[in-house]
Structure formats: C-alpha cells, structure tokens
Amino acid sequence: MHAETPAEATTTERKTAALAAFKDLAHEPGVPKPDPILVVDNVVRRFGGLTAVEVGHLEIQRGSITALIGPNGAGKTTFFNQLTGFDTADSGSWTFNGRAMNGVPAHKVARAGMVRTFQLTKALSRLTVLENMRLGAQRQLGESFWRALLPFLWSRQEVQITMQAYDLLTRFKLDAKLDDFAGSLSGGQRKLLEMARALMVRPELVMLDEPMAGVNPALTQSLLGHVKDLREQGMTVLFVEHDMDMVRDISDWVIVMAQGAVIAEGPPGTIMSDERVVDAYLGAHHDAPLSESDLESQLHEAEEALEAEIEEETQK
Amino acid sequence: MDWITIISTTLKSAVGVETVLYGVAAIGLNVHFGYTGLLNFGQAAFMGVAGYGLAVTVTVMGLPFWVGIGVGLVAAVLLALLMGIPTLHLRADYLAIVTIAGAEIVRLIFRSVAFKDVFGGSDGQRGFSNGFYAINPFEHFFTARQYGFNLGPVPLFFSPRQTWVIFVGWVLIALACGVVFLLMRSPWGRVLKAIREDEDAVRSLGKSVFSYKMQSLVLGGVIGSLGGFIYGLAYASVQPDVFGTETTFYMYTMVILGGAARVFGPVIGSMLFWVLLVLVYGVLAEAVGAGYITFMDVNQVGALRWILVGLGLILLLIFRPQGIFGDKREIAIDAR
Ligand SMILES: Nc1ncnc2c1ncn2[C@@H]1O[C@H](COP(=O)(O)OP(=O)(O)OP(=O)(O)O)[C@@H](O)[C@H]1O
Ligand SMILES: [Mg+2]
C-alpha cells in the first residue's frame, strides 16, 4: 500500500503537468506548445493528383498523450510515414528534439528515439515472441558481424535484453507465449506484441497507428492502461484512433486531420463539438455515431424531430 | 546386374567430390535464401568467378596458387557488391531478376571469343591445380595407393587425389557450417531472419536493412565461391557452362530438400541429391544393359534421371515443403 502512494502521486503529477501545458492554448491548428518534442513545417505528400498530406505547422508537446484523429483517408498513416522516414515527403521539414529529421532514413529515425507501429501489424511470423522482442533492443554488440562470431562478447548483454523483454511481455500479458512463433498469435496479441517490441527500443516518442483496432474490449482497457503508463515513464505518445470514447479517456490533446490538413486542435472534452470537426466528419461519415454518447444524443435528436413531425401532421 | 558396383558408387557419392562442392555452395545459398529471404538465382556465378579467378591468376598470370585463391575470394566479394548495390534497395523479386541475368553475363564473358586469351573460351582453363596437389599429404606423406575400406563385399576406395579434394572439401563444409551456426544464433542472425519476415518492421526498430542484406549477400557469395575452388581443383579445369543457371537450381533443390534455414540442411540435401541421382542412374543403366528395360537405351537414362529429379522436387514441395529438417509449424505459418 505504502509503495503505491508515491507512484500514484507522480501519476497525477504527470497527468496534471500535461494538462497544465495545454490549459491556455488556443484551439487553432498549429498552435505553439510550451515544450514541443516534434515540430513539423509544411509537410506535403502527393500521390499523382491526390494531395494525401499537407500539414502547415504542427507541434507535439513533450510528455503528453496526443491523439491524431480524422475520417478514413484523412492522411494520418501517410503523415506518420513521412515523419518516420518510411516514405519521402515531396517537401517540408520537421525536427525531433531540435534535430532536423527530413530525409533521414527510417532506421535512423528509430535510433534517434522516434518509434512507430503499423496500422497493419507487422509481426515477424517465423520468429518467436521472445526473438521479436529482443530484436527491438538497440546498440547490441552481437549485431555486428565479427562480434557475432564470439558469443562471450555479447551473451551478457543478451541476458539483460531478455530480462527487459520478459518484463515488458509480462506487462502485456504475453509471457505465456514467450516461445511461440509470432505468426501463431491472434490479431489482438500481435498488436500487443508490436507495441511491446517498439518499447524495447526505449523510445522518447512512440507513434501508434490504431493500436486498439481489432482488440477486444477487455484487452483494450489494459492497452489503455499501458498507453497511460508510457506517459508516466516520461515518454511522449502520439496515436491514431477512431474510437472517440477511447480518445477522450486517455489523450491530453487532440489533433484533427481531414483531407491531408490539420483542421483543428483542442482538448478531448470539447474537440468534437468544434464546428470544423463536425463538418469534416459529417462530410465523410453521413451521421455515423462516433461514440455511444453521441449515438444516444443523435437518437434523441431524431426522436424529437420525429415527434415534432407527427405533431405537425396531427395538427393539420 | 552388378549390384556391388551400384552400391559402391552410390555410397561413395554420399561423400564424393560433387556432394562436397555443391554442398558447400548450397550452404552459401542457404544464407541468402533460407535465412535472409534473398532470392539469389546467380549462386553459380559466385562459384564461377572464384574458379576462374584461381585459374587465370595461375595459368595466365603465372602467380602462385595461394594468390589465385585470394583473387577468387576478392572476385566473389566484388560480384556480391556489384549485384547488391543497385538491387538490395528494391523489392525481393528484383534481386532475383538481376542475379539470374548477372550470372548469365558472367558465364557469357567467360566463354566469349573476345576474351579467349584470358578465359579460354568455351574450353575454359586448365593446369592451375599443381600447387594444390603439391601439398597433398595423401600422396607425399602417406603412401597408400588408395584410401578407403571394404564394407563387406562392397569396396569403398578413393584415389589419393580424390581423397585430398574430399578431405579439404569436408573441412570447408565443417568450417562453413560452424560459421553459419554461430552467426545464426547470434543477434546478427536474428536481424537476418527478421529481414526475411518483414523488412519494414526491422527498419522501424532501428536496423539498417540494406547493410545486413549486403553482408548476407557477401557472406553467402564467399561460401559459394569455395564450391567453385573445389570444382576447379577436383577436375583440374574450369569450363564456363559448368557455372550455368541449372547449377543454381540444383542447389535450390538441395536447400529445400534438406530444409531451408537449417545449418546442416544443404549438406544433407546435397548428399541425398547425389545419392539418389547416382543410384537411379546405376540401377536404370544396369537394367537397360541387362535387357530388363527395353523401351530406351543407355544414352537416354541420363536424361530420364533429370526428369525424375524434377518430379521428385515437385512431390517434395507438395508433401514435405519444410524439407527433411524443417519445422512444420514454420511452414504452416508461412503459407498462411
Ligand atoms: N501509396 C499510395 N498510393 C496512392 N495513394 C495513397 C497511397 N497511400 C495512401 N494514399 C491515399 O492517401 C490518402 C490518405 O491515406 P492514409 O492511409 O494516410 O489515410 P488514413 O488517415 O490513415 O486513413 P485510415 O483511418 O483509414 O487508416 C488516401 O486517400 C489514400 O488513398
Ligand atoms: Mg491509417
């Protein structure tokens, strides 16, 4: 009990610190943050005639959980691809921790501390869960050809890496699957593995592309816990998600993209009532409910409208 | 039917010159294809540049034997760089196309009229293996006329020269297997296997995929070049057409037969391949000679056995795609 109290104290501290940073910010796209870890300027990516991404200015606050939302095809994944070096932007520049990152190849981006996961999970099927995890560790002595031939040079580090992997797998409830091939995991378990593997890199900024998609509700709750946990450990999280209930639950700040551009930013509580956001979503989604509470209010509205109509009819 | 001869040649082929030289080159191919997922269809070219590197250095330039070995190894490394630099950034299929074309270019240069003075045209080169046999302990240290033993009524003997080649060949196989074993259980090998599964995932974890694929191509190419040396020394000659595309295909058969991504897979594969080939040939040829088979003559037996090899490979891929040593679970995942 006593051991938990200070941990809880820092929990609220981190959360309050993050929220305090956002408190007085304008709800405008590209609003400057007090301590940005990632600063993006004029990133453009075109596919033929289609402009998939056209982001003017954007800053991500350090130590926060920022959600990136937007209708299907808004350009969220493409934007991730530009930032992490998996695709080459037509133009634009961005800095991570003040270091220019445009044109840097993907593996160097990861080494710099900016690690992403994929919307379509990339488990390394014919490697075991443990080997998947070990692969994520950085600066491995045994990854150089000549040293690899001399196991005594890297075996101690391998033990450390294995322990780190084991800790993470336990946290993600995958420790029972240690020696299974990753290809034999279920879709949700693969999502968990990919997230855990990304954490093996010990990143500063974690970019998660729909980490909850296809994960069952019970598991989602624990995943949400893990994501919050990342902030507690001092990491910055940027994640893409469609489920607004989830976004509301864990994020400190929300960025909305539509048709390639950032159209709004704001706190999760009020962002969905922003006119620009409503327009963007309704344009794309034709009244699709975004969460249960939205569904209810939409039902209410529809009922009221119907009642009014019936009343009108009867009055005639 | 002369069963004694059939059994003798078959058993000898299990450890013989062909088994050794294809086996070692297939170990290299296994590094590419089995562990890294690189579709290299030009493994024969690595053997070719090594064999010719040795031959030309010794016969044309008149330099010592060991210099020739060095030139062959350097040539294999250069070939790997040459084929890898433009293609390893691209998707796997492109490496397949470039290696198959690259290997043909190499073979056609070796047999071209323009370079006949250097490479000897379609006749190839000979007379470069004296340095190798000059240090043959089975000739100059031990003095037996032949080496081997009788297995019951079946004589299993090799000449001193054959014994020396086979001995060196198996030492090289042991070394290559040892290196592959050490590497593939290290973090270095882990990166290679991960690249085989998904390059982007490996990139996202901070590893330079291009660099590792290049290292794999060079390593497998250098191991493959050992097969080229063994060929040249065993037959005391090299000819361009030995290093054609079908040589690479035999090696693929061996790798799959033994089990891809297994340390001893290619060696067992090579042994089985040659044992079956020699056995089928021996039995059919004897049966034709003795009049048991009448619908073909002895000359057609050679062609028929290759048809049977093709049929065997097809059946193997259908009924046991993981090969002898492979893990069925892995294949089940892969075919998902
Ligand atoms: N490689 C490509 N070639 C051509 N067009 C592409 C390519 N990748 C993405 N696009 C287009 O860019 C736009 C943005 O796609 P993107 O995948 O970034 O959307 P998203 O916001 O991640 O959507 P979702 O929420 O459905 O994942 C889409 O219109 C898509 O068709
Ligand atoms: Mg997407």
TrEMBL record, chain A:
Domain of life of the organism encoding this protein: Bacteria
Gene3D superfamilies: P-loop containing nucleotide triphosphate hydrolases
Annotated PROSITE patterns: ABC_TRANSPORTER_1, ABC_TRANSPORTER_2
Location of the region described as Disordered in the Swiss-Prot/TrEMBL record: 292-316
A GO MF term: ATP binding
Acidic residues compositional bias, start-end: 304-316
CDD domains given in the database record: ABC_Mj1267_LivG_branched
InterPro entries: AAA+_ATPase, ABC_AA/LPS_Transport, ABC_transporter-like_ATP-bd, ABC_transporter-like_CS, BCA_ABC_TP_C, P-loop_NTPase
Keyword ATP-binding in annotation: yes
GO annotations of cellular component type: plasma membrane
Keywords annotated in UniProt: ATP-binding, Nucleotide-binding, Transport
PANTHER family: CONSERVED COMPONENT OF ABC TRANSPORTER FOR NATURAL AMINO ACIDS, CONSERVED COMPONENT OF ABC TRANSPORTER FOR NATURAL AMINO ACIDS-RELATED
The protein's name in its UniProt record: ATP-binding cassette domain-containing protein
Automatic annotation (TrEMBL), chain B:
Localization per record: Cell membrane
Keywords for the protein's UniProt record, in alphabetical order: Cell membrane, Membrane, Transmembrane, Transmembrane helix
Membrane topology per record: Multi-pass membrane protein
InterPro entries from the UniProt entry: ABC_transp_permease (IPR001851), LivM-like (IPR043428)
Chief location of this protein within or outside the cell: membrane
Single GO MF annotation: branched-chain amino acid transmembrane transporter activity
Pfam families hit by this protein: BPD_transp_2 (PF02653)
Cell membrane as UniProt keyword: yes
GO cellular component: plasma membrane
Record field: transmembrane: none
PANTHER family for this protein: HIGH-AFFINITY BRANCHED-CHAIN AMINO ACID TRANSPORT PROTEIN BRAE, HIGH-AFFINITY BRANCHED-CHAIN AMINO ACID TRANSPORT SYSTEM PERMEASE
Entry protein name: Branched-chain amino acid ABC transporter permease
